[in-house]
Amino acid sequence: MIFKINETHDPELTSWVDSANDEFTDFPIQNLPFSVFSSDGHTFRVGVGIGNYVLDFSKIAAFMSSEMESISSLCSSPSLIPLMGAGSVVWSELRVNLSKLLRSDSKYAKDIEPHLYAMDTVEFAMPCHIGDFTDFYSSIHHATAIGKLFRPDNPLLPNYKWVPIAYHGRASSVNISGQEFKRPWGQIKAADQNIPSYQPTSKLDFELEMGILIGTGNGLGETIQMEEAEAHIFGLCLLNDWSARDIQAWEYQPLGPFLAKSFASTISPWMITMEALAPFRTAYSRPIEDPEPLPHLTSRENSMNGGLDISLEVGLQSRLMKQKNIAPQSLARSNFSHSYWTAAQMVTHHASNGCNLRAGDLLGTGTQSGPALSEAGSMLELSQGGQVPIELHGEENRVFIEDGDTITMKAWCEKEGARRIGFGSVDSRVV
Hints:
With 431 residues, the chain is α+β, with helices and mostly antiparallel strands.
């Protein structure tokens, strides 16, 4: 199932919330993403993004159609889990109702307006409890670049083009945008050392990723078919999966990443629904010389529309840049359409052995690098293994992330004939 374009995507729709009509806003009426927020720092509830505001969902049930009353109750708790588990039919019905309430011709504008809160005045919380976190490795450009650094004679392992590679991450250290964390310590062994030492990482890195939030799950022992995979996805967010490359290099063989990636992962507060992304679908294809995916990872719909055209950008602001009021410097731009595996394939593969996915599970896509160096989604690639410093505004340079650095990631979708929508941003800082 891939969500189709409907009345909610009409690029001519406008809202009575003026800021939602700005051509550069991330949150026009065609987006309508979900979050969990607080306006007083104590009480958290479900919010909907519209223009520069968060709409308190708990206050608008009375203005919805009568058949929406039961759906409205799903958003009464300070978590998106009840809504996420309700299923794609419910999500679509809710989207239509929200769209009608916020359109310029809505008769409820004056009643709803008091329940809008300026985004820059609220506090965001995790949208749900993350039960499990799985990180994929879906960019062949990133996998090849990293492979060349860690395994020069065998950069891309033979299974990569057949199976969506992933490892189980650490859910407890996933946090919301604004996360600050201490530089992690770990075992590190330099090439000129005989034994490893326990010390703070000197090769701290970001990873520019998308996060896939599972909505409805599957029972233990049940699989998910490709044709139904996207019906299990509630939405996408931005994900910075922090990594300690020197710890990773020593520990990753033979079982893969562990402490090098379990100390911090940061997600953006806004969950962009799969239905909102319907106008930005792309065909999914591979180089003609590559093998076709196995039948259980193939569907006609996935081939025609399985990809997503999502622009991605990562920037850095050092402590000194902040002191000098120098804006974050863009380091790279990429696009999710470069992904070797689609979101549907990742979900299908995850459940292909009968693994039970649950509402609130987070799947990371892996670093979304493109074919050019300017599209690299990590410092390890951008600095070519730490060999080529990146010049920063303010007479600094970087090969990896230093204390006080803030990393900001952004994403957006735009194409002719559709309204531009965005993901907001995810910010995190090492202290």
